[in-house]
Amino acid sequence: MGCAATPRGAPPLPAWVEAAARAPAEAVGGVVTHTPRPPAPRAGIAGREPAADLVVAALQGEGARFGTDGSVAALWGYLGSSRAHRRVNPSAIQPGDVLFFQRFPDRRRDCDTPDHVGLVVDSAPDGRVTFLEARGGVTRRSYVDPGMPETRRDERGNIRNSILRPRRLSDAPSAPLLAGEMLCAAIHPSLDTH
After folding, report:
1. Rg for the chain (alpha carbons), in Å?
2. How far apart are CA 86 and CA 79, in angstroms?
3. Whole-prediction pTM value?
4. Which tens digit of pLDDT belongs to each residue from 58-113?
5. Measured in whole angstroms, how far is the alpha carbon of residue 86 from the centre of its chain?
6. How far is CA 106 from the centre of its chain?
7. Largest CA distance in the chain
8. How far is 112 from 176, CA to CA, in rounded Å?
9. Residue 80: which H helix or E strand, with range?
């Protein structure tokens, strides 16, 4: 009689991530208030890209042993190309997963040049995913709904997709602004890599 392998969930979230996920947020922009600044990553160039620093610090805080140059591109190179970490279908996103976005996509959604990253803190049965991101000097609680990528708010007024960048005068009218339009990959990180 053999033993079946127990499926492993996403890595646990550090206490500071849990605190930020539960902290009150401003009504506009989802800025998380009354939380300590996320710790700096142990390795890499802290402060180069705050979004990458937040995710690296969370993964390292739970035991992952890696370093990057502090950029989203390097984090993507580590998580996106390793066989130890696996891409997950957007319908299977869970807390602890890492989301990659192309805020300035060239209409390809293959995630070859992600420029933003966030850490999943909740996934609701209705498809809306809550993630933490660092942008504009603050930690934000933001939302993405892969099943409704172009919907800002649902019929009840709930935010389905956060705005990840402001509209620019040079933007085409159809330029994406919502998280769902920019989501290009979800990665389930493994903490068992060396």
Report:
1. 16
2. 8
3. 0.83
4. 888 888 777 788 889 989 988 877 666 888 999 899 999 999 999 876 655 567 78
5. 15
6. 20
7. 66
8. 17
9. helix 72-81
